[in-house]
Design brief:
4 copies of one chain form a homotetramer.
Chain A lengths: L8 H6 L2 H6 L2 H21 L8 H9 L6 H11 L2 H12 L13 H37 L4 E6 L2 E7 H25 L13 H6 L4 H14 L15 H30 L3 E2 L19 H13 L3 H9 L10 H26 L3 E2 L1 H15 L1 H10 L4 H22 L5 H6 L8 H9 L8 H19 L14
Antiparallel strand pairs in A: 1-2, 3-4
Helix pairs in contact in A: 3-4, 3-7, 3-10, 5-6, 7-8, 7-14, 7-20, 8-11, 8-20, 11-12, 11-13, 11-14, 12-14, 16-17
């Protein structure tokens, strides 16, 4: 192992091997060869059998995966052109095909089609991870659907909800992400065989002006590469807007994960919930007792860079001049893999957490009880309105007492005496008996939380999990701290 | 007119009245009242007719549009709460409804539902503009589908294409934008009646624990507000991810427009195309003869801020804590209207340009002819391969001659002598006769450009225009310089 | 008041009149005239007194502030060129100067110089606000320098610090912001008189080829406009990089304010600190008792858009072609005022909060005591090491007991029994007596917090406040909720 | 070489070994040990010689660079804590120091101080590259200071300038970047020895309450680590605002480089300038004659991601809660090296280009001559004003003729007949003789361009180069295509 040079932690620490392998040179150049084979086959099938022999294609197929990197790299150093270098290296392995590899094509024939194939596959990996997070989170929501907890707005106690209901909010975001990802996937087509500036001129020449064949060639290659269709029009490349759309779908996942992880970090602060904690894990050198939500924090860290990426792709797309400028290349080489690897890393963490969230019901209850009298205000207000009082007037009176009680807690560390205060106020139709009745049944203040959770899981989540059940994995990955 | 304070040029110069009106206080508070009426009606229809009289509702309907701003503003100054101030002001106009306006609701009942209604309407305006740009651009593409022009990659002459074909690229981007916009629209549902933290607790109380009625209430309100459905689960607000998705769809439009406008600015530099130019318009104080592509430049300027907005919404969504924090409010107040107003302004400019692009065919031809010998290289290369030569060898020879010819042009300002050079090279099977034959038919170098344009317009664009033909406007707006 | 059109809330609700006035048309066109007067005076002083009479200049000075907007607007509508329209309007008021207003200049003579003047003034306003926030916050830090509070890392209890010490962190960030702002200010020079593409050609013509005079003209105008220097070289405009640098300095302020406000929102959740609360302010319609940190939340909201702006300016600068393209114009018109108005709004809120932060010492103490046993771990660890034990071994033992005690709290809602546990562990040299001794003096766990605060205020803050004491305002502004 | 996993092209293709080595594990852990040695030495010097023996320190020094990675990695796997693992591994090599390595410190003692040291060094590398770009570009500007070329505004011919003058614009931007970088450097101090939450509590304990010694410890360590000062106050970490400031300074370099490279790409289109072109380099597989400005395009690509990074750091800083949250860690691990590596890669390209820009004077002249008649308008306008004509009237007449002449060129491909037109217009005091006189001396239209270039190089650039002459490298790096 070489310790004298920079190692990107995304690759070396956070991302799955599956995703890293997808964006490896091995897979990239295999896919280039796949494109060249599809081109030769399609050309032959459409009538160029005089130029392209079956033997040539067989030779190409035989060598489709054994990339002679050394040869290619040496040639690339010499001519400084990666596609021509790999044409040369492939030709060296396939002497019978030497004249027809890449026939009529421009570099972006392999470049764009490969990028589209890889991104489609990367989307599949991300979708699998998304489904698994949804799976674990839905089990969590189901389990805690009726565990009443304090709901917060402005990070201030508001009204009770349930732990399960809160989890449905994360799930709803992930469903939107899944829909976005699938929408984005629907935008992916093959770039096909379009030629230098997208006019298919060289192919039209090859087919002696037969336009129908050129059109067929485009679609046939698309099919052979696993797409239903090819883009009807392109320049030298497919539109970089597509890259931007993918980046947006991934950024959305980052945003959802960050929202979830921020909440979990606050929940850990409240000691009501915790992310799973590895054995032998050291909290910190100075504070060993701490249960730091480090995986949740890492989700937030990675998300902040992921959410920022689409802007770069918009910048790239909007600044492309005419039939293509190369100011997309280095950015795409770096940011396409990076955005998938970030999303992959985030979802691995999310899945790990979602499958093992720890809940402390005693703490949940303790926080709730401290604020319950205030929680009842809306109900008291409505009761007063039912008894014929003006909403505004009651609102103001209750507000005053609530503020006084709240202030007393803060200034003296005293107990919550709100019920006592309003019971003693003649203008408010409220008695100690009313107070007792309220306190007896705290669960009622969470309204439809449980019902909503059941409904949501049944109607919105389960059909999705059913549809993708083949993607649900049995075992979980270990996360490196 | 008050000149002593800042006026946002987006509002005062660039954006349409239609869009500005949509985000006005008048429409906002009308929509609040629409929400309150829907709430009251739905509550009454579902059985609260003892609390909510027909008279109360009639009174509310009678006053639905005549906002008493003075009263509301005065009250808001006093109590510093806009929703309560408007409840109070509306109640003042509707004494019979005073006790039931906003019954069981929290501020975000009007806040979120109104935002969703307005954004849905704003999307309609944007869609209309998008369709009109597509309409004009498709006419342009049709008209110039066979006008051969030099295609550029790396901003260097590459191979010919056609003016019409190039326009299909802009159209393809706009189609993707339209699909994205419609996908985004499909994500919009009513926030419905969800209560303080999204549990519908106050409504469950109102309906004495009848969960089915509370569920119905949510959907009934959604319908009354023009939605097919309500979000199954929300916190105090609907998920801010939805805002981010909308911002992304709009940013995409900015990116497409900026790509188009950048190309047009370069085309204007080449004197091959120009944006329409207003009468009496002064180029610049010092250079009156100039035809500056100012509208295209403005599109780029506005797009650069529009493309940057989604990041803010991701930041907002990902940092929301638990059931809602208010660190979304000022940002949404500013950036939701702004993103629509920017898009509106950009599309007005785009439409104006697309409907009047000037083309200079003589200049188009002049640029093409200067590079035509080089343009033929791919064909010559293929011809040589057909004659049995090695692709790589020919490639290298042609490259050498092309570089020499190219260098001579640059260093001496000489004519292009590429054909002469290769005709004289014995290793290359190419004669002056071949050269003449090539020069006679320059159109052939644009390959399928014309055919692609026809196909694309017929198969991809026309069905869309047909579907939305009611949105196509007859007259165009004047743009302020 | 017109309610039928959009009103930007930044202008109508958040920003100061002072800042809005600075970016008004009145000030803008006054400054244009200031530039024209400076130009005419400098030209006359350098020898063009045959062309430029004293009477002409007197006339210009007499009309320097009474902009005839109606005339100018009408002309602008006609010729669609704002600078020429205002030259015309000014000329109408100054018939004797008609031929010499704007002599030799291009539009950007008034455009750029005015933008630089206004930004310089806007920086002064921001600096004033920054100083006032620092002033109030430093008083706060001084007051609470020894109030021990729980310090948090990972949002988990870590070690005690003091409320005052924590405030120094916000102050340190603001000092960095102030330094950045002053650095940025140092980059501001006049654009001077540079002509169409920055070559001063028209001025060289005017001065009959006298280069020295043209150079003097540039500097003389700079002086007259309040700058020490003019940029040595420009294109048609000064470098848009300068705009980016300003935007960065402002974004930094947003970041600091957001960090402060996020902390205060968490502190409010803990009920240890609160932002000042206006009289008659309604918490929320449904939860009147709540003390929502709405101003802090608004700071975060506004900061999220402010922090995002520099990217736009980088995009603008990096895409400027050759001697200037106009794809900067609309963006600068919108984003320069907006970035200052956002910063202004944020600092007004920050100042308002900083001058009235409420602290609840009883709550501070209550949170501290609950975690004090854990807080002592580092000390216990060090004591054990002093007694000859291995750091690693002790670390692991203490960690185990701390985790057990922590788990018990969470699962049972029990009291913290950490001291009891370690006192009973024979391997750890710790007794109940040690425990008592620790608990007797909790203050000692805050280390140098108080000392650091004193030192920091005395050495770092006070000199700055002293230097800028003229900027410290006595009365505070009221903030609109 | 492993081809089965992702390799970041930034590391494997674009960035210098020098920069990659700086951010390697080897340097990182050496620097950690440097911090531990500084801590031990300072503690001993300040009186803890009973605890910390000379032998222990000698042992630490002896092992300062021979990191036992295997041991450390194995331990880290086990305890999942990198700092404790390296303390353990170092202790294993230094048995005498085992008890005192990291004494009183928290992880961020090594974390933050190391990050600051590495960033300071990385800034030095960037500064060196910046100086070298400035060096080459200034030679270029000097060489071409009087080569008159067409200046463009709106990408339309405007007025002549010179090639050298245009280069001063890039230089001026780089000077601003250098100033920003040096300002940022001035913000870097040591984090020193601050302890868990920044209160130095553990050190105060170690020094038995002697505050003066604790203060001295902080500064002594800072000195030993190469800083003039330590931050007066920190939390567990130094303020993440500092990271944001660094990212901004680097983003600014990206912006300048992208502006330069965009211009060069347009210049290459005009065939007036070209980036140096490697031997044996293949233009493209299909268009071998092309001289694609690939390095300039790559600069733009890399800049677009670099310019986008500061937002992430603002997001990170503004969301840090209280004394530190770990949602900074993964982001900083990835983005700090990445931003330096991007800048490094960009400047390597910039330097390579700047040292070998090719200029084609014949093409420069050819473009100029085609537009010269229009170029003279400003002069003609001024001449007319001198002859007593109204500026506005002449402006309108000239504008009309210029537009007509311009239109004729575009529609007919005709020659520029502007001079003929105005000579024939009786209202304009202009004759063919005037035309001839103008055409005879085209150089005069570039005004002060040459003089400005000389002045700028002499007064602004040379002093900087002089100051940093030790940084100027003699040989250039080869860039990988």
């Amino acid at each position: 192992m070489d310790y004298s040079t920079y190692k990107d932690p995304l690759g070396s620490r956070y991302c799955s091997d599956e995703m890293k392998n997808l964006f490896s040179d091995q897979i990239k150049f295999q896919t280039w060869r796949k494109c060249w084979i599809a081109l030769a086959e399609a050309q032959r099938e459409l009538g160029l059998d005089n130029l392209i022999s079956k033997e040539a294609i067989d030779e190409m197929k035989k060598n489709k995966d054994n990339i002679n990197f050394k040869d290619a790299n040496k040639k690339e150093k010499e001519i400084k052109h990666d596609v021509m270098a790999h044409v040369w290296a492939y030709s060296k392995q396939c002497p019978k095909a030497a004249k027809i590899i890449h026939l009529g094509a421009t570099s972006q024939f392999v470049g764009c089609n490969t990028d589209l194939i890889l991104q489609k596959k990367a989307i599949q990996i991300i979708k699998k991870r998304l489904i698994n997070v949804i799976f674990h989170l839905s089990k969590f929501a189901q389990k805690h659907k009726s565990l009443v907890t304090l709901g917060y707005t402005h990070m201030q106690p508001a009204q009770p909800t349930t732990i399960g209901k809160r989890a449905t909010i994360y799930l709803a975001d992930l469903l939107t992400d899944l829909e976005s990802l699938e929408f984005t996937e629907s935008l992916l087509k093959a770039r096909g065989a379009k030629g230098t500036v997208g006019t298919q001129a060289s192919f039209l020449e090859l087919f002696k002006g037969n336009k129908s064949k050129v059109k067929q060639l485009d679609l046939l290659i698309a099919k052979k590469l696993g797409f239903n269709d090819a883009y009807a029009v392109t320049t030298q490349t497919y539109s970089r807007k597509i890259d931007a759309k993918i980046a947006e779908a991934l950024a959305g996942i980052g945003s959802s994960a960050c929202k979830f992880a921020s909440d979990l970090r606050i929940a850990a602060h409240l000691k009501i919930m915790e992310e799973p904690y590895g054995k032998n894990q050291t909290g910190s050198s100075a504070m060993p007792y701490k249960r730091n939500p480090m995986h949740s924090e890492r989700i937030c860290a990675l998300s902040r860079t992921l959410m920022n990426i689409p802007t770069e792709f918009h910048s790239m797309h909007s600044n492309q001049w005419f039939e293509r400028t190369l100011d997309d290349s280095a950015l795409r080489r770096i940011e396409i893999p990076r955005s998938f690897m970030l999303t992959d890393s985030i979802l691995l963490l999310y899945e790990n957490i979602a499958s093992g969230i720890i809940v402390y019901p005693a703490q949940v209850k303790s926080h709730l009880n401290a604020e319950l009298p205030f929680m009842a205000i809306e109900e008291i207000l409505m009761k007063c309105v039912e008894k014929g009082k003006s909403r505004q007037e009651m609102h103001e009176l209750l507000k005053k007492h609530a503020l006084d009680a709240g202030n007393k807690i803060k200034s003296d560390g005293a107990q919550n005496d709100f019920f006592k205060r309003i019971a003693e106020d003649d203008k408010i139709p409220f008695t100690q008996k009313d107070a007792d009745s309220i306190l007896k049944n705290p669960g009622k203040f969470s309204g439809m939380a449980e019902t909503q959770t059941e409904y949501f899981l049944q109607k919105k989540i389960n059909p999705i999990l059913k549809k993708h059940e083949n993607l649900i994995e049995k075992s979980k990955t270990e996360i490196e701290v």
